[in-house]
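User: C-alpha cells in, sequence out, please.
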C-alpha cells in the first residue's frame, strides 16, 4: 500500500489531487519521522535529485567513501518538515559467492558447485559505502529507496534495506518510483511513495545465483582482478581441462561459460558456418531497358495534380519535354529469375523474335514512409550502432550519463508507447530554441501538436527514451547521442512522409515486366531525421495499350550470394527475438564474448568467430547438447518474468534450472573428449592425459558430520603427502582428523556405520604401510572412524570429545567385530587381505598370531555385584592384548566410553578384588601395567608414551621401555612436585630409554601420547619422556581453570628444564 492509500484509509476520506503530504498526518508512525535517509543508485543521481528537491540549497558533506557524497536538505514530507539525508551506492552493494571452502578453483570438483552453499557479502571495495549507510541510518526513522526502477534497481534496493535494517530493525522503508530526474518527476515520486517489490528482487536473485553456479563471470568493478572468485561449474571445468589439454595456447586463458554468453556466441558461429556451407547457385533472368525517353519535368506542373498527369493523355504529350539521353527505365522480369539455363534461353529467344512492348497495366497509389516508433533500449542500441557507429556498450554508458545529468529519461526500458499522462507538447517546446531542429519542433506544435505512433511493448515501469530538457553544451559522442535521441523523438511526434508510387506493367511475347516510379509529395519527419533516406524515382508516363520498342532486351546471369556476417545491430536483434538477456544486458553479453576472444570484428565491424569460440560451440554440439542455442536461457527469462508477476515461486524456478544444468554438466564431463577433439582442429594435437590423472579436483564427498559445527567433513590430501579429514566449515571451524604417515591411501566406502551418530557416518577404506600394523591385521582394511571401531580407534589415535549425552553402559555398548578374510598363507601371513568391519553387539575379537600367547589367569566369577567400574562410575570394558609380547592374551579393563583414564589388569582384579572400589567410586589406588599393543606413532617412530610408559612386568611391577623393571625415585627439588615419586629407567642416564611415569597416576594404555594430533581432542593421555602430550590438569587433584606451564623435558608442571628430575 502506498503512502497515499495509507493516509486515505486513516482519514476515511478521498484524497484530493494535490501535494500529498501538505496535510497533517494522522498516522502516528509517520508523525514520528523527523529524519529520512534517501539512497540512490549512483552519486550523480543522488546529487541531481537532492538539487531539485532542495531548490539547489542542499548541504554537502563527506561519507566514508570519497565517491559517494552526502547531501542534506529540508523538505515537506509526511505532512511535516523533515531532514532529508541523500546519499548513494555504486550499483550492487552486495555480491553472491560460494562459502569459503568452494571459492578457490582447486577446492572441489566443479560438480559440487551446483549444490554448494551461497552467501551474500559486501565486497571490500564497497565496505566504506556500507559503513556510511550504517552510520547515517542510526539517526533516521525512515528509509526511501531511490534506485533505478528496473529489476536490478529493485534488487539493489533490497540490498540497501538489508544493510540498514541490520542496524535498525524497526526502520520504516519506502520506495520512490520515477523515470527521469526532473523536478516534476522527483516531486511526484515523493508524493506517491510505495513499497519495494520483493518479487522483482527475487527474480534477480534467481538469475544471479544460477549464473554463479553455472559459470557466468561477473566483471563488476570490485572483482575485475579476482575473476576466479565468481566463476563456477562450466567455467572451471572448461578452463581447468583445456589449459591442461592445450598448455601452449590456453595456459593463461579464462574460458568462461554463461547461459547468455554461449547463445550469443552461437548466433555468430551459426552465421559463420552458414556462410561456409553456402554453395552458390547460378541463375538467369531477362531484363528490358528503355533509354533516352522524353523526361517530363513534373515538378514544373505545380497546378496539375498527379492524377491528371496519369489519366489525361492529351495533356501529357502536349507538355514541355526534355529529350536528353540520361534517363532510363529498367523493367524487371515478373518471374524474377530461373535456375535452368535452357528454359530461360528459350523464353529469351521467344521475346527476341518480336521485342515490342505493350503497356498492359498502369497504376498509381499513395505511398507512405512511416515515422519511427518511440525509442526503447534495444532500438537505441541497434540504431546507434548502425547510424552513429557507436557500439552498444558505449551507447549505454553515454545514455546512463545523460540520464543522471537529467538530459534524457531512463535509458533502460522495454516500452515503445508514450503514456497518456506524459506532456509531450512541453517536451517538444523545450527543443524549439535549437538552431538546427527548433523550427521543425515549432512546426509540430503549430500543426496540432505531437502525434506519435503507438508501439506494442510496455514494461509498465518506464516511458520510451526521450529528452527531458534542452542541452546546448554537450561535446563529442555525448552530443551525437543526445542529438539522435532528440531527432528521433521529434520524428516520432511528427507525420509520416507522403509520396505517390506509379507501377507500369508491359508484355513482350507473353512475358511480363514491371517498372516502378516514386514521387515524394511531403517529406515530413524526414526533414528532421537524416538517418533514413527516401528518394524520388522518376519514370515516364505510360498509357495502357501503348506500344514501344525497348532499347535493350537481354538475358543476364548471376549467382546466389551467401548471407553477410552479423553486425552488432543484427546480433542484438537476434538476442531480443530469442529472449537472450534483457534490454539492459545485451551490451554486456556482447562485450563478454569479445573480451574472451571468442569472437572478433572485421574491418567493416562484423562479427567473426575465433578458433576458441568455434571449438567450444562445435565441441558441445558434438556431445548432443546445443548449449549454444537460445532455448535454455530463453526459458529462464520467461520464468523470471513469471516470478516478477507472482505466478511462479522463486525456489521452484531455481531448483528446476539448477537441476537441468547439473544434468547437462554431468553428461558433458563424461563426454569431455569431444570438446578436446573439436578444439584440436584449430589448436593442433591435444596433450595426452592419463586416464587416472585428474584435470580438476575430485568432488569432496561427505564422510560424516562435524561434531563441532555439523558441517560435512571430507577427505583431503596434504600438500606434502598424507591424508586428513577436514571440516567444510574451515576456517570458521578448524576441526580435523590427521591420519598418520603409515596410512598410504584412504577413500570413502559406500557402506554406512549403523551405530555411530549423527547419521550417516561412512566407513573408510584404508591401505596401511607394511610393518606399521599388527601382523595379523590386513594392509587393506575397511573400518569406521566414528569411535565404535576400537582397533582402528587405537591404531589411528582417534579421539572424540563430542559424544552422545548419555554414556552407554558396558552391557549395551556396541563394539565392532573385526572380520578378516581367510588367509591363503599359513600363520595369518597374508596381510594384503581386505578386511571389513561388522558392527554388531559383542566384544572385540582377539586376533591370533603364530606365537603361543601367555595364558591369562582365570578371573573369578562375576556375580554382578562386583563388576569393575571405571573412574566415570560406569561398568568397565574387558579387552584382550593382541600384540606379541609378554602380555599377549592377557585381559584388561578400560573405560567403556574412553572418557576417563581407567586401566586395570583383569588378573590383578581377580587377585585383589578386595581392593576394588565400590560401584560408582574411584579406585583407592591406581594400577599401572603394560597395555595391549605398542603401535607406531603417526610420525612413524615408536611412541614412548604408548603403553610402554605405563607397563608392568609379569609380576605386576612397572617396567620401562627396555622391558626392564623400572626404579622409583622421589623429586627432591623445591616446587609443587617435591616429594612426589616417579618411575624411570633403571639404566645409567646415558643409556636410559626415556621412560617416565608418576607413581601416583593410573594411566590407560592409549594408542598415542600425542593428544594434539586430532582437533577432536582426547579425554585420555599417556605419558613418556619426549612425548608431545600434555598432562591434563586436575587428573588427580581436580580440574583447574588454567593449564600450568610444563617442563620441556618431561612435560610435567611445577618445574623447568633446569630443575627437571630427569637431569639429576
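Assistant: Sequence out:
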Amino acid at each position: 500500500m502506498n503512502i497515499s492509500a495509507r493516509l486515505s484509509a486513516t482519514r476515511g476520506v478521498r484524497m484530493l489531487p494535490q501535494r500529498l503530504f501538505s496535510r497533517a498526518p494522522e498516522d502516528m508512525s509517520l508523525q514520528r519521522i523527523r529524519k529520512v535517509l534517501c539512497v540512490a543508485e549512483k552519486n550523480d543521481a543522488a546529487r541531481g535529485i537532492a538539487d531539485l528537491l532542495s531548490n539547489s540549497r542542499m548541504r554537502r558533506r563527506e561519507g566514508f567513501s570519497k565517491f559517494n557524497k552526502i547531501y542534506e536538505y529540508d523538505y515537506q514530507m509526511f505532512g511535516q518538515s523533515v531532514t532529508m539525508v541523500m546519499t548513494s551506492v555504486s550499483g550492487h552493494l552486495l555480491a553472491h559467492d560460494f562459502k569459503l571452502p568452494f571459492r578457490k578453483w582447486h577446492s572441489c570438483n566443479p560438480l559440487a558447485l551446483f549444490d554448494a552453499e551461497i552467501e551474500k557479502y559486501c565486497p571490500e571495495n564497497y565496505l566504506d559505502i556500507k559503513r556510511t549507510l550504517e552510520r547515517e541510518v542510526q539517526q533516521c526513522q525512515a528509509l526511501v529507496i531511490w534506485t533505478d526502477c528496473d529489476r536490478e534497481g529493485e534488487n539493489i534496493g533490497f540490498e540497501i534495506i538489508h544493510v540498514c535494517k541490520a542496524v535498525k530493525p524497526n526502520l520504516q522503508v519506502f520506495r520512490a518510483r520515477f523515470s527521469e530526474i526532473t523536478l516534476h518527476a522527483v516531486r511526484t515520486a515523493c508524493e506517491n511513495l510505495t513499497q519495494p517489490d520483493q518479487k522483482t528482487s527475487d527474480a534477480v536473485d534467481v538469475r544471479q545465483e544460477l549464473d554463479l553456479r553455472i559459470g557466468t563471470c561477473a566483471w563488476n568493478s570490485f572483482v575485475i582482478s579476482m575473476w576466479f572468485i565468481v566463476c563456477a561449474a562450466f567455467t572451471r571445468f572448461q578452463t581447468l581441462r583445456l589449459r591442461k589439454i592445450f598448455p601452449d595456447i590456453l595456459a593463461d586463458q579464462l574460458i568462461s561459460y554463461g547461459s547468455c554468453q554461449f547463445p550469443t556466441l552461437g548466433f555468430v558461429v551459426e552465421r559463420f558456418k552458414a556462410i561456409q556451407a553456402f554453395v552458390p547457385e547460378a541463375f538467369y533472368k531477362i531484363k528490358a531497358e528503355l533509354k533516352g525517353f522524353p523526361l517530363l519535368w513534373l515538378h514544373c506542373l505545380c497546378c496539375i495534380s498527379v492524377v491528371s498527369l496519369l489519366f489525361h493523355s492529351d495533356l501529357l504529350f502536349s507538355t514541355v519535354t526534355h529529350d536528353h539521353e540520361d534517363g532510363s527505365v529498367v523493367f524487371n522480369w515478373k518471374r524474377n529469375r530461373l535456375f535452368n539455363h535452357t528454359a530461360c534461353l528459350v523464353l529469351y529467344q521467344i521475346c527476341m523474335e518480336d521485342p515490342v512492348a505493350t503497356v498492359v497495366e498502369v497504376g498509381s497509389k499513395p505511398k507512405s514512409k512511416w515515422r519511427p516508433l518511440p525509442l526503447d533500449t534495444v532500438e537505441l542500441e541497434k540504431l546507434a550502432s548502425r547510424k552513429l557507429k557507436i557500439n552498444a556498450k558505449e551507447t549505454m554508458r553515454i545514455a546512463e550519463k545523460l540520464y543522471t545529468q537529467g538530459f534524457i529519461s531512463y535509458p533502460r526500458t522495454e516500452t515503445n508507447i508514450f503514456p497518456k499522462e506524459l506532456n509531450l507538447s512541453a517536451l517538444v517546446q523545450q527543443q524549439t530554441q535549437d538552431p538546427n531542429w527548433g523550427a521543425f519542433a515549432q512546426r509540430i506544435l503549430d500543426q496540432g501538436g505531437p502525434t506519435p505512433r503507438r508501439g506494442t511493448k510496455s514494461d509498465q515501469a518506464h516511458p520510451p527514451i526521450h529528452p527531458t530538457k534542452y542541452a546546448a553544451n554537450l561535446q563529442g559522442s555525448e552530443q551525437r547521442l543526445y542529438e539522435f535521441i532528440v531527432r528521433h523523438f521529434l520524428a516520432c511526434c511528427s507525420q509520416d512522409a507522403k509520396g505517390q508510387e506509379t507501377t507500369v506493367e508491359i508484355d513482350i511475347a507473353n512475358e511480363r515486366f514491371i517498372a516502378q516510379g516514386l514521387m515524394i509529395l511531403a517529406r515530413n519527419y524526414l526533414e528532421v531525421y537524416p538517418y533514413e533516406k527516401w528518394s524520388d524515382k522518376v519514370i515516364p508516363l505510360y498509357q495502357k495499350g501503348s506500344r514501344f520498342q525497348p532499347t535493350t532486351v537481354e538475358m543476364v546471369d548471376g549467382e546466389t550470394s551467401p548471407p553477410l556476417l552479423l553486425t552488432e545491430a543484427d546480433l542484438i536483434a537476434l538476442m531480443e527475438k530469442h529472449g537472450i538477456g534483457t534490454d539492459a544486458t545485451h551490451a554486456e553479453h556482447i562485450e563478454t564474448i569479445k573480451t574472451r576472444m571468442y569472437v572478433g570484428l572485421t574491418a567493416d565491424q562484423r562479427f567473426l568467430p575465433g578458433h576458441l569460440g568455434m571449438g567450444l560451440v562445435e565441441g558441445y554440439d558434438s556431445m548432443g547438447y546445443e548449449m549454444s542455442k537460445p532455448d535454455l536461457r530463453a526459458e529462464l527469462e520467461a520464468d523470471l518474468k513469471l516470478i516478477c508477476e507472482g505466478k511462479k515461486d522463486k525456489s521452484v524456478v531455481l531448483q528446476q534450472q539448477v537441476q537441468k544444468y547439473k544434468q547437462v554438466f554431468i553428461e558433458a564431463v563424461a563426454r569431455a573428449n569431444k570438446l578436446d577433439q573439436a578444439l584440436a582442429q584449430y589448436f593442433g594435437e591435444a596433450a595426452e592425459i592419463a586416464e587416472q590423472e585428474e584435470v580438476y579436483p575430485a568432488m569432496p564427498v561427505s564422510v560424516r558430520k562435524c561434531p563441532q559445527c555439523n558441517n560435512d567433513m571430507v577427505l583431503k590430501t596434504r600438500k606434502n603427502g598424507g591424508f586428513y579429514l577436514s571440516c567444510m566449515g574451515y576456517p570458521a571451524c578448524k576441526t580435523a582428523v590427521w591420519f598418520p604417515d603409515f596410512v598410504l591411501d584412504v577413500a570413502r566406502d559406500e557402506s554406512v556405520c549403523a551405530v555411530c551418530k549423527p547419521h550417516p557416518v561412512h566407513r573408510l577404506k584404508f591401505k596401511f604401510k607394511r610393518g606399521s600394523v599388527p601382523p595379523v591385521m590386513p594392509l587393506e582394511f575397511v573400518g569406521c572412524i566414528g569411535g565404535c571401531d576400537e582397533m582402528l580407534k587405537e591404531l589411528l589415535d582417534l579421539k572424540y570429545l563430542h559424544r552422545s549425552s548419555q554414556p552407554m553402559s558396558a552391557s549395551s555398548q556396541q563394539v565392532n567385530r573385526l572380520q578378516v578374510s581367510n588367509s591363503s598363507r599359513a600363520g595369518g601371513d597374508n596381510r594384503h587381505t581386505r578386511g571389513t568391519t561388522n558392527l554388531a553387539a559383542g566384544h572385540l575379537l582377539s586376533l591370533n598370531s603364530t606365537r603361543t600367547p601367555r595364558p591369562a589367569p582365570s578371573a573369578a566369577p562375576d556375580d554382578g555385584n562386583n563388576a569393575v567400574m571405571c573412574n566415570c562410575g560406569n561398568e568397565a570394558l574387558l579387552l584382550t592384548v593382541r600384540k606379541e609380547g609378554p602380555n599377549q592374551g592377557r585381559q584388561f579393563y578400560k573405560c567403556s566410553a574412553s572418557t576417563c583414564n581407567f586401566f586395570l589388569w583383569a588378573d590383578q582384579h581377580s587377585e585383589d578384588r578386595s581392593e576394588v572400589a565400590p560401584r560408582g567410586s574411584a579406585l583407592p589406588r591406581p594400577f599401572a601395567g603394560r597395555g595391549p599393543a605398542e603401535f607406531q606413532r603417526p610420525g612413524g617412530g615408536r611412541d614412548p608414551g604408548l603403553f610402554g610408559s605405563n607397563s608392568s612386568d609379569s609380576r605386576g611391577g612397572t617396567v620401562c621401555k627396555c622391558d626392564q623393571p623400572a626404579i622409583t625415585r622421589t623429586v627432591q627439588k623445591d616446587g609443587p612436585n617435591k616429594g612426589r615419586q616417579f618411575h624411570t629407567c633403571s639404566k645409567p642416564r646415558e643409556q636410559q630409554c626415556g621412560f617416565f611415569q608418576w607413581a601416583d597416576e593410573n594411566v590407560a594404555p592409549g594408542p598415542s601420547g600425542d593428544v594434539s594430533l586430532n582437533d577432536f581432542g582426547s579425554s585420555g593421555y599417556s605419558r613418556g619422556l619426549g612425548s608431545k602430550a600434555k598432562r591434563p590438569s586436575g587428573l588427580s587433584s581436580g580440574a583447574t581453570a588454567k593449564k600450568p606451564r610444563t617442563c620441556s623435558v618431561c612435560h610435567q608442571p611445577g618445574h623447568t628444564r633446569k630443575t627437571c628430575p630427569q637431569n639429576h
